[in-house]
């Protein structure tokens, strides 16, 4: 069945805005290989470039020109990379080749300017990656009060366990829900549960009070199967996003390390990974109070507070969309260094990172779908001038 121009335009714009699913991305890349779509692709790429916010460009004008030159005049020499198999050579139409390369970089929020030239076939080397690492998925372990563990990614839907008078259920869309309709919150010894995600995992849970929680990779939340009459307290590690159910009679407290956030009903994100220089609490809406060992700070919507190693709190207003992009299926980098990019990649793809020589000094701005394989992320970094490769379960970054 022929694909309409409207469908191609829809897919292109979804990918450009970082909203395309993995299936839609595959469909777009398939359509790019069809010569019948060349003229429309050319128009889409040009229109996207002309409307791009140049403040977010990843490359300088000179770097953009260099990338363009390498695309239009590919080197015939084989690429020295142990992750690639024997080259498979095929001809690509000029516009289709430019568009295909553009789509890769669109995922990083970047386009480059080019000049129109006459259509001509080009020879290029298309190489297949022999080993790749898929993106993370909904994976988590639930540890019940008696110490027994449930692997949620393989558990069947429906009732998983009963903690006191609370039913613990897994829904069809992969969420964990604590049903407390008949629960007794006067229990002397509450059933404490622990939900934890590994590297390459994420999960959602609805707490006993109806608050919604999203766990990023390598994160955890510890909470009772039913909250007490007077307060709601949870403990977290890693990165967690909260939509707290309003209840003025019961403050909601989040403990992480020696710090505490207290709210009544609001949305906020806490990032408290041990390999980060500081923990960060970002308020999306409502109001929260952050307490460290030495200071208290009341946050306003859009404000992010960092707790430094000594307990000091520094705050600034940030782009909330970028901070919570992980919850919406995106990497969103804003002037991020290669080490920050690699830390996020390591958690999501469950990989190790090794630096050989001096760490490259680069800053990256743009969006990347978290649904792509790691090879696509590394390809974008290589276009940006970062020398990186995949070896077994390790990314090697060299100067």
Question: What do you see in this structure?
Answer:
With 399 residues, the chain is of the alpha+beta class. It folds into 3 domains: 5-126, no CATH class; 137-323, Jelly Rolls (Sandwich); 329-398, Phage tail protein beta-alpha-beta fold (3-Layer(bab) Sandwich), CATH 3.55.50.30. The protein contains 8 helices and 26 strands. It has a 19-stranded mixed beta sheet that branches. A hairpin with a 5-residue loop joins strand 10 and strand 11. Helix 1 packs across helix 2 (22-32), helix 1 packs parallel to helix 3 and helix 3 crosses helix 5. The longest helix is centred in the first third of the chain and has 13 residues, at 38-50. The radius of gyration is 24 Å and the shape is globular. The chain starts with a helix and ends with a strand. Mean pLDDT is 78; it is low at 52-60, 63-101 and 104-130.
Summarize the structure.
The protein has 399 residues and is of the alpha+beta class.
Overall SS class: alpha+beta
The end-to-end distance, rounded to whole angstroms, is: 48 Å
Q: What name does the CATH topology of the largest domain carry? A: Jelly Rolls
* Main CATH class of the largest domain: Mainly Beta
Bin the strand percentage: 25-35%
Number of domains: 3
| CATH 2nd-level architecture of the largest domain | Sandwich
Molecular shape: globular
